[in-house]
Amino acid sequence: MPIAFSQGFTPHPKISYASAAPTGVGSEAEYLEIGLQAPVDPEQLRVALDAALSPGLDILEAVIAGEGSLADRIDASQWRLELPQVEPAVAEKAVTAFLDSAEVLVERMTKQGKRAFDARAAVSRCAVAAEPDLPSGAVAVPCAIIDLVVRQVTPAVRPDDVLSGLRVVAGLEPPVPPRVTRLAQGTLTAQGEIVDPLDADRGGVGIGER
Amino acid sequence: MSVSSVFPQLEQLLPRVSKPIQYVGGELGAVVKDWDETTVRWALMYPDAYEVGLPNQGVQILYEVLNEQADVLAERTYAVWPDLEALMLENGVPQFTVDAHRPVKAFDVFGLSFATELGYTNMLCALKLAGIPLDSADRDESHPIVLAGGHASFNPEPIADFIDAAVLGDGEEAVLEITGIIREWKAEGCPGGRDELLLRLARTESIYVPRFYDVDYLPDGRIQRVVPNRPDVPFRVAKRTTMDLDAWPYPKKPLVPLAETVHERYAVEIFRGCTRGCRFCQAGMITRPVRERSITTVGQMVKEGLEFSGFNEVGLLSLSSADHSEIGDMCSGLAEQYADTNVSLSLPSTRVDAFNIDLAQELSRNGRRTGLTFAPEGGSERIRKVINKMVTKEDLIRTVVTAYSNGWRQVKLYFMCGLPSETDEDVLEIAEMAHEVIRAGRAAAGTKDIRCTVSIGGFVPKPHTPFQWAPMDRPEVIDGRLKMLKNAINSDRSLGRAIGFRYHDGEPSLIEGLLSRGDRRVGKVIRRVWEKGGRFDGWSEHFSYARWVEACDEVLPGMGVDLDWFTTREREELEVLPWDHLDSGLDKDWLWQDWQDSMSEFEQDDCRWTPCFDCGVCPSMDTEIQIGPTGKKLLPLTPVKNLRVPV
Ligand code: B12
Ligand code: SF4
After folding, report:
1. What is the ipTM of this complex?
2. Do B53 and B79 touch, CB atoms closer than 8 A?
3. Which of B7, B85, B351, B525 fits a disulfide with B101 by CB distance 3.0 to 4.6 angstroms?
4. Do residue B12 and residue A52 have CB atoms under 8 angstroms apart?
5. How many domains does chain B have?
6. Do B60 and B188 lie in a common domain?
7. How far is CA B52 from CA B61, B539, B594, in A?
8. Which residues does a 6 A CB cutoff place in the pocket of ligand 1?
9. pLDDT, averaged across chain A
10. Which of A12, A14, A23, A50 would you mutate first to test chain B, the one with the most B CBs within 10 A?
11. What positions does the domain Radical SAM core occupy (chain B) (predicted)?
């Protein structure tokens, strides 16, 4: 593919990632922008990238970028948190305590050292799923599943910060590491839904299949 | 019986370790096959961290050669960092392959590639994690054959207790032959068990099975003899040589790592072997004769390798790349083909002459002239005669100055310290040379803005070289000389400021010396060091000299020897060396003569350009020098890929 390169002695391919998921977290919804030197059929680009990437890294769709940057169309993420060996009722209580708090201070190591910040304000939805079904195949029962929507703020609030928050407010300590998956990214509507950032560019030329 | 992936258990541990991406596999070029549809299965290990091991050519080549066979499966495994090692032991997760995350213990062969002896402790970690008994003697049919290859296997005696077999030399054909023997043995229903299989391997006369050989010692600790303990194995085991490299154009599908590694490039060996005859260089001695890949095969490999991988750097590897008979056309042809692309070409070369600069100039057409490397290896002309690295001081200065006047601003010079017969004066001459280089360089370049880096490491005498008899200097001596050299470089502040000084201290070299020329008794030291927590010995942050010395003190005196005995002791002509029964083709009398010549500062020519000087390799291995020129040229490529148009 005729990827574009930056100028200078060590040219870098023009690729920018919008709010990439942290290490150790699964994702069904990552977005990136690629600069090209010449127009390419998006479906052709999708197939070529998909073929070169590792199993499990699947390129689902490519569209021609319209107005504005990708980053401007992403202000929230939806996550699924699986907590094996945690009773849903126990998780439920912790989530309620979290949501009932005006502020939940958590700490995280950053490059500048330990930092404390509020994990509550950025959370727009946090709920224990009614029927635990385990798409990722984890076998530990019981298993609580939390549906989480977090707005993009600075400093970023990540799923593990919300988990820290649950520990702070309700002493919730999952016995095994929770499994976290990002389900969606996009613009958060007033109704609390997430709008796919590619929607605006769809309906034009050569849209890949979903 | 199928073998399941350990990934579900491993995945639980990954959030808790550093750089987890190195354990997930899935690289472009990786191959995953159905276990049940194959009959012979190899786990190949480079016993160092993924970031060092993944780019290794040897493993990539064997991986591809094996996987091209329909009924053969080959996967890769690397040393895991201590953080994951601890978690794996705690949670019962075994040593796994990165391709399909299968347990190493389930494979038929566990092949390790030892480019350096410093990987030995990592082998013990891997065996332990894999659940394979450390001692070859304790293994049964349920365990893989533990097989060593790579340059260090030319003296595998220090690891003789831990391995079942070793291959000396080129691996392309060896792995196929071993596969054939295992395939047949399995088809017959594994008659005679593990011993029978090892015997069949040993009968090839080019696979060494240590357990079939006994070592007797003299009262003074020297070896009396190494002899087979059964009638049906050969007295000497010969090395392998792959001839006609054009017929083996690997790697065709280079692995493209997802994690950061030491090299991210497509590397092509443009020839194997080297007959320049540098006396310290084991690689040059054990890989004879020179076998070139033709200019057209190299061109084809580069084209296909880049198309497959998307790499934008190409390395033209060999032991002395500027010596290829068609190197000029090769460099200009490739530079032409990849002009106006983002592909950069590099050529490691140790030659100290103007031709080297011409080539570098050709290859850096588009780019910056950042750094150029030369390897005089010895500081004085006298010591350069001792090591047979002939270049006069005047030539050296002239060459480096030419580099500066052609726009290079940074020159790196490589040296060794502790060479046989070396004195303080030999080393101090490096400072004079560096001063001279800067003085002349400033005049030629018309600017003060030039730099030179002196990089110096400890010399380690290696088996199958003329220096195999040589005594090593003690670390204090090496460190003392390095300090003197540093002071001498800085004695002139104006010049010293333009000279960088990088060195390796003497202690790790002494241990490398122990492992290089050790015999089976050294195996007990390796085990002791590993028990005390030793691993990743090639990494200064993990290597502990004190631990090695302690282990030597604990186990060697009981056998009448010690660390000095193995390292700083000079050997005599008739002493039986631990590797004498392993045949590199080099005639021991010729090696001894070359050692004597070295001490009388007598140089040896290169048999590529002067008549054969009877080192012994070609007649005993039934090989010959294979070089060009073929007279062919590289044609322009159409269409050109990866255009670089800055936007
Ligand atoms: C590229 C390179 C590196 C790279 C990449 C290493 C890597 N990951 O592969 C870097 C820069 C990291 C490196 C580092 C070092 N290197 Co280096 N390196 C080389 C170089 C230029 C090419 C190696 C290569 O790819 N050869 C080609 C492949 C195909 O050959 P091969 O690996 O030997 O494999 C063949 C056979 O040995 C055999 N085989 C290999 N493994 C196995 C396994 C089995 C089971 C079987 C059956 C067969 C088999 O089959 C293969 C195909 O025929 C060589 C010089 C040269 N041209 O050989 C030096 C060289 C190998 N390096 C050398 C040294 C000393 C080092 C360092 C120790 C330097 C230091 N002091 O730090 C470190 C050690 C790093 C480490 N921890 O492993 C020396 C080895 C000295 C010796 N034995 O006499 C060499 C020979 C250079 C020299 N002339 O001094 N090196
Ligand atoms: S036998 Fe002769 S031609 Fe062959 S490598 Fe030795 S010196 Fe060179």
Report:
1. 0.84
2. yes
3. B7
4. no
5. 3
6. yes
7. 16, 11, 35
8. B 48, 52-53, 55-58, 61-62, 111, 113, 115-116, 147, 149-151, 167, 170-172, 174-175, 242, 262-263, 269, 281-283, 317-319, 348, 457, 462, 538
9. 89
10. A23
11. 260-502
Structural domain for B34, as ranges: 7-238
Question: Cα dihedral sign for B610, B615, B620, B626?
Answer: negative
DSSP string, B215-267: EEE-TTSSEEEEEESSTTS-SSEEPB----GGG----SS--B-SS--S--SEE
- Interchain pair B26, A7: CB under 8 A: no
Concatenated DSSP letters of B54-114: TT-HHHHHHHHHHHTSTTEEEEEEEPPPHHHHHHHHHHTPPPB-TTT--BGGGSSEEEEE-
**What pLDDT is stored for residue B368 in this prediction?**
63
Q: What is the pLDDT of residues B352-396, one digit of tens each?
A: 888 888 888 888 876 667 678 899 999 999 999 999 998 899 998
Instruction: Give per-residue pLDDT as tens, B134-160.
Output: 999 999 999 999 999 999 999 999 999
Helices B522-531, B545-555: axis angle to 10 degrees equals: 130
> Domain for residue B562, yes or no?
no
Same domain membership, residue B345 and residue B262 = yes
Report pTM.
0.94
B158 with B283, same domain: the answer is no
Q: A5 to chain B: which residues are within 8 Å by CB?
A: 342, 644-647
Question: How confident is the model at residue A137, as a pLDDT?
Answer: 54
- Residue B546 domain flag: no
Answer for the pair A158, A115: CB distance below 8 angstroms, yes or no. no
Q: Which domains does chain A have, with CATH numbers?
A: 73-188 (3.30.70)
